Amino acid sequence: MAKPSSKRSRSAPRRVEPLLLLACCLPAHGLAAGLSVPALGPAPTAEADLPLYLEVELNQQATGLLLPFVSRDGRLFARADTLAKLDFELPDAPPGQLIALDQLPGVQVRYDAALQRVAITAPLSQLDLETTVIAPDRNEVLPATNSPGLLLNYDLYANHGQRSSNVTAYAELRAFGGHSGVFSTTAVTRAFRSDASEQWQGDSVRLDSSWEWSFPESMFSLSLGDTTSGNLGWTRAVRVGGIRIGRDFGLQPYRVTTPLPAFLGEVAVPSALELYVNGVKQYSGEVPVGPFQLISQPGINGAGNAQLVITDAFGAVRTLSFPFYASQNLLADGLSDWSLTAGLIREDYGLRSFSYDNRPVTSGEFRYGVADAFTIEAHGEAGGGLRNGGVGAVWSLGQAGIVSASYAGSDLDDQDGGLTALAYSWNNSRFNLSLSTQRTHDDYRDIASGYGQAPARASDRALVGWNSEQLGSFGASYLRLKYPESEASRYASAYWNRNFGRNLALNLSINQNLDDNDDRSLYLGISVNLGDRRALNTSLQRNAGRDSANVDISQSVPTVGGLSWRLRASHADGGGTSGLAEAGWLGEHGRVNGGVAGSSGDWYGYAGANGGLVLMSGDLFASRSVNDAFAVVSTGDIAGVPVKLENRLIGTTNDNGLLLVTPLNAWQRNRLAIDPMDLPANMRLGQVEMFAVPSDRAGTEVEFDVQPVRAAVVVLHDAAGTPLVAGSSAALRGKPASMTFVGYDGEVYLDALDSHNTLQVSTAGGTCRVSFDYPASTAPIPRIGPLTCTPEGSP
Question: What is the predicted pLDDT for the residue at 33?
Fold first, then answer.
């Protein structure tokens, strides 16, 4: 039986599910679980020994080792310490003892005297090989940078009708630079009147202000100001003015935080390995002799089927299939996630700028991956006389799915209470099932209860779905909610949707209040793709005995920018007819839109605009709204240089040689490039491709070395008027780095010219020189000459 792991490994493997053991490419005879050194009889005498130094091949794989052996009577012997270098397990052999290779169980030896090479084939049970670990890089940390700057995002909206008018402006201001973090604040300013005869009224409300620092090496973030507490699946978050610290996995986006299916096996000869998950290739590569551990790539969730295809050095192919289950709700073994929040509860959010309760509160969450299949959770909060704490866990049941459970208890003014929650989920590419229940007992309270609605006394949910390529997607759900001092509400729903080709989709759903037979809604939607970004959407709906119909036709805006529009008409029983007509334009510097809408003679017009302003690198840029990171590309004061983002043209530099590039992905590599083929010939380039790694919500500078040069083709002749011999070396006086060679017809290309230049040329007949001025020319690379190169020492 093949060993599941080796005593030594390149990366010690964890216990993983499923476990795959492979044994291939070796004859079955001669295998043994252990090795005892055979009795060899009398030690060979010095006269009978022939010392050899041989190149060694082990199990069809070159080792790169030249090791000593002894030949005696046509047999090969090796010292125990020599065999240990080949990873043979010889626990009972003294290092200097000679061992006959052909007496080791299952070992075959082929000695090539002409090439001084020995090929050894040994069963894996006799070898102590390192484990080859094949896994995605789960710990890559990229050095992110940002540069000093300011950003203003704005969103303007205004409408005017017969009954009311209003103007609203939303703004977000960010300041950033270096290690000072990111300061941001948001606010809304409103002006309105409810009747045309009334005076305008207005107010301004600050929404959120915070200063945040990020430390990607430790995945740690710190926020001062307005923030929200962390939360688990069985807790509730609150808005707080204060401090929050904790883990932020977003700072290492390439890191995989959830357990990945892993497969452990062995190959006796070098083999090619391919992994397919649900029919999609996940990995292809080579594995050396010995045990290996293959960890699948991220992005797998739910039940699936994997196929491992092994092709050995002899061309034999073996395919193994096995099921697995992966979940995003688990943390990888040994990984932790936590946060701690302390401050004052934010009240009247969106209505008042500085409304905070005067009682401090604290809240903390913690998650830890005890094993790949088991994650524990804990939560605690306190404030205003309340104490609340709880624990939970998430288990993987293997192929049976994921189950989670939690319990929390609270104490407020000597009134105790508790919360229990239980959930189960399972899904694959066609089916999904989710069940959850949550109960509160006695006088359970959390911090959110003191500033809003108390948690539900009972919450039960069930969801089941099925997907068929021929019939479409089906689903059904059940919901039961009961809040304190109210009756329970129960609802059931079912849906079906199906795509007919690429241009037609149907959506049908029904919702039923199980406590009121008259409370029922039916919905039928039809979507038609008309091509050229145009779509037609129609719907019929019946709700509480009333029917309504809607027709909507629109053209979406392209990613690069352009025109969008929308027309909608609706009719409802008892509500009359309504309509909307809207047009918008997405440009390089923002988006504008406007339209008219209304019903039953009450019509109004509206308009809006949004975008951003960035002050950075000594320039002011107008752009679309900037929600994530960005970069300012510099090409050294050279205007009109095309810049590409991920091989897609994103814009050209302005008159100052700058271009704002947005959006970029924070903490990730963003490939920026300039195409030298699009530049004039008299430009000197450094790197033409660079990776920008900005921090979140901030900007970084990317500088391409683009310099204009004075270049020319100089034609050189000797005193007789004959072109100088090709291959002669030439250099500008005082500029040794300009050294080059004369080409055919005496032509030499120079790109470091000044207004006045002296060129020195070394030929087989001696050294000559020529002086010339750079001509005033519209050509990027003018042609100068022919010029006579005068020999050194000539008058």
Answer: 30
- Distance between CA 115 and CA 101 in Å, rounded? 19
Are 420 and 438 spatial neighbours (Cβ–Cβ below 8 Å)? yes
pLDDT above 90: residue 776: no
Quick one: 95 exposed, middle or buried, by C-beta within 10 A (0-12, 13-18, 19+)?
exposed
β pairing state of 108-112 and 98-100:
unpaired
CB environment 100-111: b (16+ within 10 A), e (fewer):
bbeebbbbebeb
Tokens of 527: 């979507």
Q: How far apart are CA 352 and CA 732, in angstroms?
A: 73
In the DSSP assignment, the letter for residue 678 is G
| Whole-angstrom distance, CA of residue 122 vs CA of residue 106 | 6
Q: How many CB atoms lie within 10 A of CB 764?
A: 7
State the alpha helices, DSSP H only, in 312-381.
none
- pLDDT band at 297; cut points 50, 70, 90: low
For 624-653, the pLDDT digits (tens) are 999 999 999 999 888 888 999 998 999 999
85: three-class secondary structure by DSSP: helix
When the pLDDT of each residue in the chain is averaged and rounded to a whole number, the result is 86
C-alpha distances in angstroms, 531 versus 504, 527, 534, 535, 560? 11, 12, 5, 7, 17
The residue whose two tokens read 């000072």 is 180
Residue entry with tokens 């100068």? 784
The widest CA-to-CA distance across the chain, in whole angstroms, is 123
CA–CA distance, 21 with 12 (Å, rounded to integer): 16
User: How would DSSP label each residue in 29-69?
Assistant: TT--SS--PPP--SPPPTTT-EEEEEEEEETTEEEEEEEEE
Torsion of CA 379, 384, 386, 389, to 10 degrees: 10
